Amino acid sequence: GRKSSKKLVDAVRGTEAKIAVVCQKDPRTEEPEMDDLYTIGAIARIVRVLDLPDETTTIILQGLHKIELKSIHSNQPYITGKADSIFEEVDNDKEFHMLVKSCQDSAVEILRMTENSEEATFNMSTIHEEIQMLNFLCTNIKMPLKDKVELLAENSIKERAYKLLTILDREKQFIEIQRHIMHKTHREIDQQQREYFVQQQIKN
Prior knowledge:
single chain, alpha+beta, 4-stranded antiparallel beta sheet, 20% strand
């Protein structure tokens, strides 16, 4: 919805130009400076632009490779700056294959515990390249933005997989504790209701 962002999209729409994408630390900041941004991001190409009736614009991006934002030159008419490419360490051994499989299994389990998982699991089934699968999970599994930025900042693909698996295990435990508390609370409420009913019967 930000005017400067729309101007950037208009400037590159219909061209082969790529844009750098980074996250804000606080989304309420209207005119972010260098200190307001996470410096690790991605170079991306615009796949599709959707102009919505409420005058906002939704942009579908494809991330191409990682960058580090080094400086901002100007905020007008949109942010321009300097960014360096970062190339990641790829270690496609058996351990990495098992890590990605474990991450995928954990993600499916979390989706089954929390929401309708059919669409998400279908999307996973269409991905056959393991690094792409790992990055898909990092992007689409619900977790704090801080965790996602830390995953992106990890240059070793294998270490990223380890970190993601740790986060997924933590989320599973959190969901299980939540479900246990809800079940226990529900059981206690049922017991209170039974006791109240018995008391009313005795009074009658």
